[in-house]
Structures are given as C-alpha cells and as structure tokens.
Amino acid sequence: MPHPLVTRFAPSPTGLLHKGHAYSALAAHELARRRGGRFLLRIEDIDPTRCTRENAENIFEDLAWLGLTWEEPVRFQSEHLADYDDAAADLRARGLLYPCFCTRVEIQREIERAGRAPHGSEGPLYPGTCRRLTGSEREARLSSGTPYAMRLDLGAALAATGSGLFWDDVKHGRIAARPERLGDAVIVRKDIGTSYHLAVVVDDALQGVTEIVRGEDLLEATHLHRVLQELLGLPVPVYHHHPLLTDEAGRRLAKRDRSATLRSLREAGTSPAELRRELGFDDGG
Ligand code: GLU
Questions:
Q1: Distance separating alpha carbons of residues 128 and 37, to the nearest angstrom
Q2: The ligand 1 atom nearest the CA atom of 221
Q3: β-strands 119-120, 123-124: how paired?
Q4: Which H or E element spans position 95?
Q5: CA of 113 to the centre of ligand 1 (A)
Q6: Per-residue pLDDT tens digits for 10-52
Q7: How far is the C-alpha of 14 from the C-alpha of 5, rounded, in Å?
C-alpha cells in the first residue's frame, strides 16, 4: 500500500496569523483533504524570547475559525529540545559542526578586514574564522566558557554527502541543492541551543511529513535542509513552495500588518467562507 500523504502547517507563535499564514495553512490542509492524507499542526516555539503560549492559543483559535482541523496532540518544539540536541551531537561527533565564538560585530569586522567576502543569498557569508582555529585555540576558548554557536562545516558536509543533492518542488520542478548560498550556516544558535533549520528537518522526519507546503521565502533555506536531511539519514519530502501574498502596494504581508490579521478580519465581520474564497479555496464545502 502506498504511504499516506502527511503534511503540516508549522507557524512560529511570535504574533497573530495573517492572510499569508491562512493561505499556507489552507493549502496544506486542502492537499491532505484531496489526497486522503493527514494534516498536522506544529508550533515552532524554540525561541523563548519571541514565542508565547498566548500566541499559540490565538493560532489555534484562528485556524479553528478558518474551519481547519488537525491531529492532536500538537507538537510544541520547545518540549522536544532533546531531539534537536541529539541530532546536533551526532553531527558534531562526526566533525560536521564546529563551535563558533564570533559575535555579530566580530563577523562584520572580519568581513570588512578581508575586503572581499563571498556573498550568499542573505548577504555576506560567514568568513570561516572559527573553522580555522587550531585544536588548542578551540579548546582554550571552550574551557574559558565563552558562549558559542555551532556552525555547519559545509566543506566537510559536502564531502560526506557528495554534491548531487536535489529536491522536487511542485511549483519549481526539480531543484539542485546549492547550500554554498548559505555557507557555514548556524545549526545550533548560541542563545537557544538549536536553530529553525535543525528543528524543522528533525521534526518533519519524526512526524513522517511527506509534503511540505510553505512560502517561497523559505525556499532558500531548503538548500540547507537538504544537506541536513542527507547527513542525518532522513527522508526527503516533496516541497510546495508557494508565492507569498502581497498587499495592494505589492509588499509582502508581515506580522506587523495588523489589518491583515485573521483576528482583525474576523472582528471586522469577514466570514471564514469569504476569506477562503478570496484566497482561492472555493471548494464548496
Ligand atoms: N516556523 C516557520 C515560520 O513560521 C515555518 C517553518 C516551515 O514551514 O518550514 O516561518
């Protein structure tokens, strides 16, 4: 029997959901409904400085108002930090991560000093300062208790995976993974002990997610996610990176655009059916 489709909506509870989130959630929910699959909701609350339980409760309320149903229990990432620690420890033990003690300011200075830094999709790439520390320099920094992040040693990672990684994207076709665009990315943040990248690939695999529906703003990250999946021996889902909704001025909707929040639409008298229609989910029930 073919495996059932499993998809998910995975918001970070940092504020109220807006129309863009509604689109992603509906698209994933619809996909599961049409293909007889399962729809999961996951709360990506690894950053305690930005995420609140109240925001998560508001997400449940908004999605229920929209007419969505999901499987219980909902996975809260903050309750599973040990899973991300285990994955990071595995990568570290294999020499694929290295501690990075640099502050943002130091990285900026190093880039300026070098004069010409390779650029990735999100600006200058990390110049590799801490990758080049000698064993004893690294030990000294570690034993002095300096806080550190863990970065992917991309060279070592690609030596382990080979360079032929790709994923299938429903809208964009087969995409060759180009993790060089993100360089030695932070896999374990200094402040929260994991990262979005690590938590998302671990959870999608643990929860058996087979199709990932999310906005095109996360397409860049998928280049790195493919490497992490390969290194950790995780299955590769099919991706649906959809265009982002924009406002009348063509600007991408953000959590700060209060007028587009589901709560304000609801309070202004918009019905869920109207919103579903506006977003193109006119399924007639
Ligand atoms: N938690 C991420 C966000 O809210 C989305 C993660 C994903 O869909 O992969 O932007």
A1: 43
A2: 9
A3: antiparallel
A4: none
A5: 35
A6: 999 999 999 999 999 999 999 999 999 999 999 999 999 999 9
A7: 28
